[in-house]
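Sharing a chain and its predicted structure for anyone who wants a worked example. Both blocks are below, sequence first, tokens second.
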Amino acid sequence: MPDLLATLDAALAGGIKLFQYRDKRGCDADLLRTLHRRTQHAHALLLVNDEPELAAIADGIHLGQEDLTRISLAQLRRQHPTTIIGVSAHTIEQVAACPQADYYGVGPLHPTNSKQVARAPLGIDGIASIARFSAKPVCAIGGITRSDLAPLRAQGVAMAAVIGSIAHASNQTAAARELVEGWETHK
């Protein structure tokens, strides 16, 4: 993947307002601080993935289902009352089990190479059913491209997470801008 700081700068220049730092080898606290300064300067939010001990450095944290076996959402909320807490969910039951979350990352929409654990794609209808059930915002995840944005918005999905559509683009700023414009067009 291209340089993370360059990708962040390009995404912010393209209008992205939420960035998630994810490194399955472990997130670097100094890099997280640098990322946070950049997102704050751009009036955007930064989430850190999987590491509650770093949550105070960012605006929020995103946890996968496997993280919930070792992390109490209630305790995390008490420790970080103003921190955004997101949880990955692949079923209505997983959403129902995590009422302390502020939003749910739901998917995958399509097959994706960014996760080592492959899950069967939920498709638009699967994500839409979870979005209808959830009282909290749903963020669609997994292989999302611009052509997915209109149908996701039409189904009440609040956000869409992308990696490859920006990170692997020859012009990352233009790719981010195209995604933001595509999302905003379908409000």
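Comments welcome. The two ends are 31 Å apart (CA to CA).
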